[in-house]
Write a structure and sequence with these properties.
Elements (H helix, E strand, L loop, with lengths): L2 H13 L6 E4 L2 H11 L7 E5 L2 E2 L1 H8 L3 E5 L10 H7 L4 E7 L8 H11 L2 E5 L7 E2 L2 E2 L6 E5 L12 E5 L2 H11 L7 H16 L6 H13 L9 H5 L13 H11 L2 H21 L7 H4 L6 E5 L3 H10 L12 E2 L16 H9 E5 L6 H9 L6
Parallel strand pairs: 2-4, 2-5, 3-12, 5-6, 6-9
Antiparallel strand pairs: 1-10, 7-8, 9-10, 11-13
C-alpha cells in the first residue's frame, strides 16, 4: 500500500466509511469542484450557498459556468437556515451547499430532506468540521458528497489539502474518471510545503506567531510561497492553470501522523468551547444555546466585538492567537463582490456579523490567559 492509499485508509477508518469513497486533493476547493463537475453542473445551473463563506467556494461554482445563489445566515448559528434556502430554490437549482461554520453543523437533516423532495443534490462544506458530529454521526456523511480541508488552522492540518467523501453511488464512477485527469503538484510546491510544515511545527511559537503570520500572508499574496489561496483566486473568477491538482505524498505523510493524535485535539476544543460559552452566558454576551452546542466541534469560538481592529491589537499584546476569519461575506475579499454575483445589501445579517466577528482559539492547553483576556476586555464584547 503506497502513502496515498495509507492516508485514505487512515481517513476512512476514522470516519468508518469505505476507503474507495475517500479521495484526496491539493486543496479542499478542488474536492468541491470535483463533486460539482461530477454532478454535471454547468451553464444555466444554480447552486445555493450561504452569503457568508470563503471566496473559493463560489469560485468553484463559477469556474464551471454555473451561478451561485446566496442566502443570508442565522445570527446564532452563523449558518444558512433551511427556511432561507427554501425561498431561493428555483427550477434551475441543481445543488445546495450546507456549510459547517467553525465546527457547527446546522439543520443538515432538514436541508437534505428539502433537497431530496425537489430532486436536488446536496454537498456539505465540512472544511471546518472534520471529526465533529451532527446528531451523533460524523459531519459530512449524510449528503451526496462532502468535502474537508486540511489547511492551516483546520481541524487537522497537512499545510494545505483537501478530502472528498462520496456518499451517492451514482457519482462515484464520474469522480474516479475526473481524478485520472488531476495534475501532480510541482516539485517546487511540494518542497515549499514541506518547509512550511517544518516551520509551523518547530519555529512557530507564541513570540513569533504574528510576525510569521504576516510574513506568510504577504509572501502568499505575492505568489512566492504555497498559500491557502492564490492571488488569482482572491482577485477574480478565472480558474488558475494549476487549480485541478491531486495530493502530494508530503500531505499524506503529515496527515497520517497528525490523525493519530486527532481525537485528543477534538476533545480539547469541545471542552474549551463549552468553557468559553459558559463564560459568555454568565456575562450576558452572545452565546450558543444548548441545542447548538450538541453539534459543535468548536474549531474556533466566534465572538462579536464593538471594534475589531482594537480588539485584535489587544489580543496580540496579550499573546492570544486570535482569528480574523470571515471579515466579509466572501472572506477575505472586501469591497465590491459583484463579479461573484453577490450584492452585500441583500444579506444584512451576514453584513452585520462580518463587521463584528473575531474567532477565539480553542486548541490551547491552558485557557487561563484567554479567560483573563476576556475578563479584562469584556466591555468590548457584544
Amino acid at each position: 500500500m503506497n502513502k496515498q492509499e495509507t492516508y485514505r485508509s487512515t481517513i476512512s477508518d476514522f470516519l468508518g466509511v469505505d476507503q474507495k469513497n475517500i479521495h484526496t486533493y491539493w486543496k479542499g476547493r478542488v474536492a468541491l469542484y470535483t463533486a460539482l463537475k461530477a454532478m454535471n453542473i454547468g451553464k444555466g445551473d444554480e447552486v445555493i450557498l450561504p452569503a457568508f463563506t470563503c471566496v473559493v467556494v463560489p469560485n468553484a461554482i463559477i469556474y464551471l459556468g454555473a451561478t451561485p445563489i446566496y442566502v443570508d445566515i442565522d445570527k446564532n448559528s452563523l449558518c444558512a437556515p433551511v427556511k432561507n434556502i427554501e425561498d431561493k430554490i428555483s427550477p434551475k437549482t441543481k445543488c445546495i451547499l450546507i456549510q459547517n461554520m467553525l465546527g457547527l453543523s446546522f439543520e443538515v437533516d432538514e436541508i437534505i430532506a428539502l433537497a431530496s423532495s425537489r430532486g436536488i443534490y446536496t454537498i456539505e462544506d465540512c472544511t471546518h468540521g472534520f471529526g465533529g458530529t451532527y446528531n451523533g454521526v460524523y459531519n459530512g456523511l449524510k449528503t451526496d458528497c462532502s468535502f474537508y480541508s486540511t489547511q492551516w488552522n483546520k481541524p487537522f492540518s497537512t499545510g494545505i489539502g483537501g478530502i472528498l467523501y462520496v456518499q451517492n453511488k451514482e457519482l462515484r464512477s464520474g469522480i474516479e474518471e475526473l481524478n485520472k485527469t488531476l495534475k501532480n503538484p510541482s516539485f517546487k510546491n511540494v518542497m515549499i510545503l514541506r518547509f512550511l510544515i517544518f516551520a509551523k511545527t518547530y519555529i512557530l511559537k507564541n513570540w513569533s506567531y504574528w510576525f510569521l503570520l504576516r510574513l506568510y500572508r504577504k509572501l502568499s499574496s505575492l505568489g512566492l510561497v504555497v498559500g491557502s489561496s492564490s492571488k488569482d483566486e482572491i482577485e477574480g473568477v478565472k480558474k488558475p492553470n494549476d487549480y485541478f491538482m491531486g495530493a502530494s505524498n508530503v500531505q499524506a505523510f503529515t496527515g497520517i501522523k497528525v490523525l493519530k493524535k486527532f481525537n485528543k485535539v477534538i476533545e480539547m476544543r469541545k471542552e474549551n468551547g463549552i468553557k468559553i460559552n459558559e463564560w459568555m452566558q454568565s456575562h450576558n454576551k452572545c452565546h450558543l444555546s444548548k441545542d447548538l452546542i450538541i453539534n459543535h466541534s468548536f474549531l474556533k469560538f466566534p465572538v462579536l466585538v464593538k471594534n475589531r481592529e482594537s480588539f485584535l491589537l489587544a489580543a496580540e499584546k496579550f499573546k492570544i492567537p486570535m482569528g480574523d476569519w470571515f471579515i466579509s461575506h466572501l472572506h477575505p475579499v472586501q469591497g465590491d463582490l459583484s463579479q461573484w454575483k453577490l450584492n452585500v445589501s441583500e444579506f444584512p445579517i451576514a453584513q452585520e456579523v462580518s463587521e463584528q466577528i473575531v474567532n477565539l482559539p480553542t486548541d490551547i492547553n491552558h485557557m487561563d490567559s484567554l479567560m483573563r483576556f476576556l475578563e479584562k476586555h469584556k466591555n468590548e464584547l457584544l
